[in-house]
Amino acid sequence: MKPISIIGMGLSPDDLTAGHLELIKQADILIGGKRHLDHFKDLPARKKDITKNLKKIITFIKDRIENGATDLSIVVLASGDPLYFGIGSLLIGSIGADMVNIYPNITSVAAVFARIKEPWHDVHVISMHGREQKIALLSALAKKEKIALFTDSNNNPAMVAKLLIENNRSDFKICVLEQLGTSVEHIEWYELNNAAEKTFSEPNMVVLKRNPVEVEDIEPEGKPYLGMPESCFDHQDGLITKAEVRAVAISKLHLLTDSILWDLGAGSGSISIESSCFITTGVIFAVEQHKKRIIQIQNNKKRYNVNNLEIIRTKLPQGLGNLPQPDRIFIGGGGRDLEKIIKAASSRLKKNGIIVINTVLIQNIEAALQPLKKAGFKTDFIQIQVNNRKDMPWGERLESQNPVWIITGNARRL
User: Fold this and answer.
1) Number of structural domains in the chain
2) 269, 310 contact by CB (below 8 A)
3) Residue pLDDT, tens place only, 27-51
């Protein structure tokens, strides 16, 4: 049996080389999607349409091999490049590498980024074609700037836009590229709300690109130190861990030079910034959902030149699955979702890791302790209340801050 030729079509027959075309002309059996076969209606080869049921194609080819059709020339037409999310790997695994010759072509992703005139060496690619990949997409949104998606009739651009809206990922815009390589090719960038309401022609691909964060032009101000005043940070009035509480919470983390720290609900990033005093070879991940606070973290990162701080925008507890496994976790926000966040985060914590939770709500003390105890963590908690000096017309007085509970979970099992 002659080896089967698997030829990448690129975007259209215009991308086929003379060698590709000669193999196609000599084919006794030509296998491909209907839109590919339509380009070669005039050829005498027997045509076999590839449907969603790829097992039928595998069975069809295997039957020809087993029946000893040694002189037949079989050519399979693949979209883009056969080995890039294509049928090539399936055929190799099913009939063996010795029975296959691969003829590559331009990948769909390369063509997409050429169309929108953007580099793609840093793009994250996910195939949602016939696959359930919503969790993988949400995880990628947490740390990737550019994402390319292969779509299908169910996992279509409108569905993708709705998924982002439902998960508060308005920090991305969407580009839909319809029927690339045809006379009706259409490429357009959309706001998520607009894309969610549209119907797009098939086939299509999607590119998601994070909107740029507007960072102030700030000159570095030197090295951070433990317990810096609030005035040292770009922050929203009052929404920052107070200096003394910050110092105690960081002490409870027992940070090492090579620690991987998740700062969840990072706010202005004050915990992340001061943790960099101790974490010098490790990495700090500041996770926050609000755009304004993301900008504040960016500003503070630049102000103190913290190069090992990665900033992730996502609504917790989503987006944690794609982050490196931590050995230290700090949770400074969470509200009603605190218990869910603790469960999701603590399940990823390395052996002997430490999790520290700050809360001012009495209800959240139990919400924090119970999931930690249930997971086998050794727990401890303290209450800290700071009284600050306040000037008076004829002297000084103390003004109390809100009491804060600092809860610690140690992954050394009881």
Assistant:
1) 3
2) no
3) 999 999 888 999 999 999 999 888 7
